[in-house]
Each structure stands twice: as structure tokens, then as C-alpha cells.
Write a structure and sequence with these properties.
This protein is an alpha+beta fold. It folds into three domains: about 120 residues, Nucleoside Triphosphate Pyrophosphohydrolase, CATH 3.90.79; about 90 residues, Phosphorylase Kinase, domain 1, CATH 3.30.200.20; about 230 residues, Aminoglycoside phosphotransferase (APH), C-terminal lobe (Aminoglycoside 3'-phosphotransferase, Chain: A, domain 2, Alpha-Beta Complex). It is built from 14 helices and 18 strands. The strands form four sheets. Strands 1, 2, 3, 4, 5, 6 and 7 form a seven-stranded mixed sheet that branches. The protein has a five-stranded antiparallel sheet with strand order 8-9-10-12-11. Strands 13-16-17 form a three-stranded antiparallel sheet, covered by helices on one side. Strand 9 and strand 10 form a beta hairpin. Helix 6 runs parallel beside helix 11, helix 8 packs across helix 12 and helix 9 packs across helix 14. The chain is globular and about 75 Å long.
Length: about 450
């Protein structure tokens, strides 16, 4: 029997009227912040705002949460700053709006320090000391005003309902409800600022597979898009939806052939085999250092000779992929079922922060791995998924060559995932035990995959 999920308690600093008032609850002779319990490992903003509405009857949105407020007076005490969406509503029963100047003083010492530090952090964004439009009170009102102006010429009207999914000073993801349909607003900062030009370029070049972009907000590096019709693949238990996703992925990649110069210019990562080989020596050299620094006896670190063997096998795998003739085209390092919407009319592919130009089989390999963890389908589902993916490519290339290439894709897909970001280059970051452990795990995974690839496949025929 699965153990019940351990909930996490958050204290909410709910503000209104440009953060001049804070919501407090009487508690004996003192006052306290509203508290909610949320499920971990989910979208923090969505959990906090949903529970604020359910437990305290306050429609609110996040200004500051998560790592932005990780340092506080009480280690391990989670808290977040929210703003009420409606500025003049009465306080929920049993709570009161209290002037900011006295709010903290009415609480105990711990919460007084929590409120003081959190609101001081908020002030840094308001006065420009720190940059981030989504940590400033009132930004949701500004977003609704801008969106209404963009939708009016299209005959669309907002209802006022919304759902916030991501929250940080420079990032935002919200669903906005219109009378006729839903729209989404997304904005990204560094290191994902390139997602805006990437998304706009995909919507222009490959309309069939990308959501329609309705407007761009350059000051916020954000955009407004239509909601894709259909069901998210991670919510489907129908294996035919996975087959449709694999087939449409191939069609999408075929449609993008020849567009890679524009896609690279728009900000997609260069993960072509030549680029991967160019990073391989430095990557494995650093992995040798991480393996040597491992303290735990298990899982066993790879020996220097094994890393040499891994490097040679990875180069061979890249050579096989190149020799099989598949062109480099659009790909996605974070190709997970939550970013795929399936409908009767086909698939829409979302979230291009991790978009790349690469051998097309690498992206399929990520989809196949997610299928294996999903519990959808039977033992042979991976082969059936591969058949669905290769069928469109079979119009252009011999299936025998494609299947041989697919056998060598798994270790290269792991390598591409590992080097897609430059974290591995930074020795300061890889001193973090969790990050070091992740890279050692990925490297061991590559080693297992090259052994399996050598057993499954043969080099492509010229």
C-alpha cells in the first residue's frame, strides 16, 4: 500500500494595495500568518494559490516563493508572498487586513522577522534594486489590461478567472479564461530568455505543431498563446495517444528539415553529433574527477579505463548516427508527456526552453524512456512506439538503416542531456553533492547504454 504523501506547511504573507496591508489571523494574545498545507514536488505557485483559495477564500497570486525566499529567520520554515487579486474585498471570516507598518509587530518574533525580511525583499524589486517584473505588486492587473487589449481585435473577452502555475521574479505561466476559449501567458528570464524568439519562430515556421502566438510582450519577454486543444499525454492512459505522439513527432521533425539555421539563430541548443563529440573529452575528463571523488562505495564509480572505453563507444555511436543519413532537425531535451497535447487533429508540442537541433532519434529516445516509466502499454510497447515513429521516416530512408541507427541512439541521448547545459563545466557547482551525484549517475547510465547498444545494433551500411 502506497504511503500517504507528506504535506508541507507554508506560511502565507498575503498582501494587497501595493503591499501596504497584510492578512493576519488572531491567535490568543498574538496574531499569526495564514497557513496552508501543500503537496510537494508539484508546481509551487499552483499549489499555494489553490490552497489559499480553498482554506482562506482568497483569490491571490504569487509574488515571491521558493528559492527566492529560501533564506529566512527560521531554517526549514517555508513561506511565500502573495497578493490578493481583488484589492477591496473584505477579509475572510476570522482574519483581518492589517497595516504593513504594524503587521509584523503583532506576530511572534519568528513571524515578525519573516514578514519584515520578505517585504524588504519585495521592496528591492519595487524600487529597482533587483530586476523582475513578476515580483512587483499589481503586475496581474497590468497583465489583464494588456491581454484585454490584445484579445479585443480577435473578438475575445476575458472573464477575469485565471490560474497561476509558475512564479518567480522573471518567469510567469498563467492560464487566463476568456468567454470563447482559454489563452496562456508565459514569460521567461535567464537562462531561458531564448524561449520567446524560439516559440515565435516555431509558430511562424511550423504552425501545424506549435501553439498559435497571439501577441508578444517585449518588456516582460513574454507572449500570449491560444490553448492547444486536446489532452495532455501525461494524463492519457491510451497507448494509441503515445503512438500518435511518436508519429507526429516524426512528421514535425521532417517538416523542420532545412530550418536548422533559423532555429539555431532563434536560440535552440546545438546538440548535433559534431557538437557533442567536441564536448566529449572535456566532459569525460571532469567525470573522471567526480568518479575519483566519490565517497560512497555503491554504486561503484567507473574506473579510468571504463571511461576511456565509454568515450570510444560514444564516438562510435555518434559516427553510426551520422552515417545513417538522418538529417539534423528540431529536437527537445525535455521531451516529456506533459509538454505534448494530443487531439483528433494531431499533436501540439509545448515548452521550447530545452529545444535543440540534433539527430532526430535523440528526442524520440526521451519519449520512449517516459513511456517506460508511465505504466502505459505492455512489455513490447517500446518497439511498437518505435515502429510508429519510424513509419513517417520510412518514406524517406530505408527502415533497416533507421532501426540500426535507433539502436545506437540511447547513449548519445544521455550524453546530449548531460551536456545540454554548462553546469558540468563549473567545478564550483559540481562540488554540490547532489549535482555531482547526478552527473555520476548519468555517466554510469551512458556506460550501460553503450554496452546494450553494442549488443543490439550494427553499424549502418553505406
Amino acid at each position: 500500500m502506497k504511503a500517504p504523501e507528506q504535506l508541507v506547511t507554508y506560511r502565507l504573507i498575503i498582501t494587497r494595495r501595493s503591499a501596504s496591508e497584510v492578512l493576519l489571523v488572531p491567535s490568543g494574545t498574538r496574531w499569526t500568518l495564514p497557513r496552508v498545507e501543500i503537496r510537494p514536488f508539484r508546481r509551487l505557485a499552483a499549489e499555494l494559490t489553490s490552497e489559499a483559495s480553498r482554506a482562506w477564500s482568497v483569490d491571490a497570486y504569487c509574488l515571491l516563493a521558493g528559492s527566492v525566499l529560501s533564506r529566512g529567520p527560521a531554517p526549514g520554515a517555508h513561506h511565500a508572498v502573495l497578493e490578493a487579486a481583488r484589492q477591496n474585498d473584505q477579509a475572510p471570516g476570522g482574519s483581518y487586513w492589517v497595516a504593513r507598518t504594524t503587521a509584523g509587530k503583532r506576530c511572534d518574533l519568528e513571524e515578525n522577522q519573516m514578514v519584515t525580511r520578505a517585504l524588504a525583499e519585495l521592496d528591492c524589486y519595487v524600487n529597482g534594486e533587483k530586476v523582475g517584473p513578476f515580483a512587483k505588486p499589481g503586475w496581474l492587473r497590468d497583465l489583464f489590461g494588456w491581454t484585454a487589449g490584445q484579445l479585443a481585435p480577435l473578438g475575445l473577452r476575458l472573464t477575469g478567472s485565471f490560474r497561476q502555475y509558475n512564479a518567480s521574479p522573471a518567469f510567469a505561466l498563467l492560464r487566463l479564461d476568456a468567454v470563447e476559449r482559454r489563452v496562456w501567458f508565459k514569460a521567461t528570464g535567464e537562462p531561458n530568455a531564448h524561449e520567446l524568439p524560439t516559440t515565435v519562430e516555431l509558430a511562424r515556421l511550423l504552425t501545424r505543431y506549435a501553439p498559435r502566438v497571439l501577441a508578444v510582450h517585449p518588456d516582460w519577454n513574454g507572449w500570449l498563446a491560444e490553448e492547444a486543444e486536446g489532452v495532455s499525454l501525461d494524463e492519457s492512459r491510451d497507448f494509441s495517444d503515445w503512438e500518435r505522439a511518436a508519429s507526429d513527432l516524426a512528421e514535425f521533425q521532417i517538416a523542420a528539415i532545412g530550418q536548422h539555421p533559423r532555429l539555431l539563430a532563434a536560440g535552440l541548443k546545438d546538440l548535433r553529433c559534431a557538437a557533442l563529440v567536441g564536448r566529449m573529452e572535456a566532459f569525460l575528463t571532469h567525470m573522471a574527477e567526480l568518479m575519483a571523488a566519490q565517497d560512497a562505495p555503491t554504486p561503484a564509480p567507473l574506473a579510468p579505463t571504463e571511461l576511456v572505453t565509454l568515450g570510444e563507444a560514444l564516438q562510435d555511436s555518434c559516427a553510426v548516427l551520422d552515417s545513417c543519413g538522418l538529417p539534423d532537425t528540431i529536437g527537445q531535451v525535455d521531451f516529456n508527456p506533459g509538454n505534448i497535447v494530443v487531439s483528433r487533429n494531431g499533436c501540439t508540442f509545448l515548452d521550447w526552453a530545452e529545444g535543440c537541433v540534433a539527430n532526430p532519434l535523440l528526442t524520440f529516445e526521451y519519449l520512449r524512456q517516459h513511456l517506460g516509466r508511465s505504466g502505459v502499454g505492455a512489455a513490447a510497447s517500446g518497439q511498437r512506439l518505435l515502429a510508429s515513429y519510424l513509419r513517417p521516416w520510412g518514406r524517406l530512408y530505408p527502415l533497416a538503416h533507421l532501426r540500426r541507427a535507433a539502436a545506437f541512439a540511447p547513449p548519445v541521448a544521455v550524453l546530449a542531456y548531460a551536456v545540454a547545459h554548462d553546469t558540468w563545466r563549473c567545478r564550483e557547482q559540481t562540488r554540490n553533492p547532489e549535482i555531482a551525484g547526478l552527473y555520476r549517475s548519468l555517466t554510469r547510465r551512458m556506460f550501460r547504454e553503450v554496452i546494450s547498444a553494442s549488443q543490439r545494433g550494427e553499424p549502418c551500411l553505406q
